[in-house]
Write a structure and sequence with these properties.
2 copies of one chain form a homodimer.
Chain A: E1 4-5, E2 8-9, H1 10-28, H2 37-47, H3 54-65, H4 70-91, E3 101-102, E4 105-106, H5 108-112, H6 114-133, H7 143-154, H8 159-169, H9 176-201, H10 206-233, H11 236-239, H12 245-248, H13 254-258, H14 260-277, H15 286-297
Antiparallel strand pairs in A: 1-2, 3-4
Helix pairs in contact in A: 1-3, 1-4, 2-6, 3-4, 3-9, 3-15, 4-6, 4-9, 7-9, 8-9, 9-10, 10-14, 14-15
């Protein structure tokens, strides 16, 4: 469990922010009964399936580090979570990773069928832009900049590129740099985007935005390396999703290429690099530091 | 074929606008070779599969009617076409309408597989927002307004709602108003959005925007009624897609509910209502009028 770091109780930080994000998401989505009810039930099923809300937490923590008001970052935190959830729904489909469980529950298509699951993902992706467009106006970062930031992180050169490269690498021996290409896009791009959006919502100066970019990039890479490690070392019950799938499907992972011990070292190095990027905040980035430490030590 | 209407050669109008839209789309998408090449090839395959570009044409014609420069409307015309193409790719999937042919060519998933087809649709939807965010700033309609316009038309209360209701109506006897609910969302919402965006790009006053809304709404409904009529009366070769599918799959359509003759009357009435909405433009909406007439008389 998270520790108290420089006076920050991360457990409390995560609980309060998760609650705020859940409330904001609940208010921004059409109620489950809205016609056609199936799609709104399906969107809400995955959005409220117990996600850890790490991307929103990074977004809000970044806003805090830059001296912003977290409520200004909230629509952007929610937008990123909608994109994350859409990508999980589509990734779990039979035509992709073919997963039956996610966060301990049946995946969206197992409950609603493939057609509705595809449409629920589409609707959450679209909802993300509706949410982002409704954020406050930030003098340095107009809506145009915010929308471009999200569209590029989620687009065919980043998030989707990662998923495609990941699909294509299945069953193949790929070199380390190629694996890094996948991780940078599949995971790091959206985490980095979440962190940057938090800074933008605080109208941060360019130096702070660059620091948040380095931080998000390295935390994102560490996050995926750890995800791959946990897939090997934990049980399905511990993870809430099918463990050992990477090996079974011959997925390209760090443990598969460089082994477990070396993977752990890489994750720790990446986390150190993430910490180093936060120096510019002179101690005001306690929540970001605590989140990075939490992500490194997590067991699911 | 389209006629010359009040000095407007619609054939030439459509040819030049299609060329401009194709060029702009080509320039805005990553080249087909960009890594991972599969996704960019798949996006371009459907985007350049010979679509009639009716939504971009409506967008550009609306800009013209409002006295705007068409080049200002072009990114928005392209954004709407990306959304239209994404919706076709996803609708054609086996989990949805399960179509093997579209515009005389194999559908996206038949060429690239289901996984890539889903991701290509996702990428085009995301690309639409990237394109829209890059439009000029219009004094009355800031980027926030433009993005909200597109997100709402494409979201779970409009375009996606139509597709869900359409899926759920298969094999059922549904009443006329329910069919109108489907058509308004499945088809009319995005056509109306395209037309409104054209007006917005010309910084049109609210009265003109309201007229474009009425026009787009009625043309959209007429368009779908005619689509349903053609599915019954034309061959697969004429349509470039599988004809008679609506009947085979017991789809809810106007011909199925009120018969062919009554459907033709409804389409003509809707077109008349669309024309009536254009009065405010006092003859400057020739391209919109010609497009509406063309859509009514089309045979594919």
């Amino acid at each position: 469990m998270p520790e108290i770091r420089r006076g920050l109780d991360l457990h409390k930080f995560l609980a309060t922010r998760t609650e705020a994000v859940n409330r904001a998401l609940d208010q921004s989505l059409p109620p489950a009964k809205t016609k056609p009810a199936t799609i709104h039930k399906a969107m809400r099923y995955s959005l409220f399936a117990g996600g850890k809300r790490m991307r929103p937490a990074l977004c809000l923590a970044a806003a805090q580090a830059c001296g912003g008001a977290e409520k200004d970052a909230l629509p952007l935190a929610c937008a990123v979570e909608c994109i994350h959830t859409y990508s999980l729904i589509h990734d779990d489909l039979p035509a992709m990773d073919d997963d039956d469980f996610r966060r301990g529950k049946p995946t969206n298509h197992k409950v609603f069928g493939e057609g509705i699951a595809i449409l629920a993902g589409d609707a959450l992706l679209t909802q993300a832009f509706e949410l982002a467009a409704q954020c406050r106006k930030f003098p340095r970062y107009p809506h145009q900049t915010i929308i471009l930031e999200i569209a590029r992180a989620a687009g065919s050169l980043q998030l989707i590129a990662g998923q495609v490269a990941d699909l294509e690498a299945e069953g193949k021996q790929i070199p380390g740099p190629e694996l890094k290409f996948i991780h940078e896009r599949k995971t790091s791009a959206l985490l980095c985007c979440a962190t940057r959006l938090g800074g933008m919502s605080a109208n941060c100066p360019p130096g702070q935005l660059a620091a948040l970019t380095r931080f998000g990039h390295h935390v994102g890479l560490a996050f995926q390396v750890i995800d791959d490690i946990l897939d090997v070392t934990q049980t399905s019950e511990q993870l809430g999703k099918t463990a050992g799938k990477d090996v079974a499907e011959q997925k390209a992972t760090y443990p598969a290429i460089v082994g477990l011990e070396e993977s752990r070292k890489i994750a720790a190095q990446l986390t150190d690099q993430a910490f180093a990027a936060l120096k510019i905040f002179k101690g005001r980035a306690v929540a970001l530091e605590a989140l990075a430490e939490f992500l490194l030590k997590r067991d699911r």
